[in-house]
Design goal:
5-stranded mixed sheet; about 140 residues; about 25% helix; alpha+beta; elongated; 3 helices; DUF3168 domain-containing protein
Length: about 140
Amino acid sequence: MIVFEIIDRLKQAGTPFVIVEGANELAEVKDRPGNTPAAYVFVSGEASEDNQRLTGPILQRTAVDLSVVIITENAGGAEDAARDIETLKAFTRGLLLGFTPADAEPLEHITGRLQQARDGMVWFEDVFGTAFYQEEQP
């Protein structure tokens, strides 16, 4: 559910993104999305801690890494595309840093990395972290 909350947040009025979708749609993108700028949101990792209880139903804290892949294209060339990606990163981070999804901790920025840059198209992945608790249902 956290992914859908982030997608909805990135689709808010005034968003610069033409496309905001999930992992399934990203998997369909070969060289470039149908339109840009685009953002694709998905869970890129999870890690659960040990059970926090000695007896009774299991309770675990689960840390989640959420990736936002930002793709933009600028016919003006590499310098213009680089400027565009910086603007899109700032917008995305401004919306997501400190955002608290339902039943989870506030989002923190973990890392960002360039995925690809070619022919005026830039792919950049930002990773945000949060955590939630999972409890065994007796």
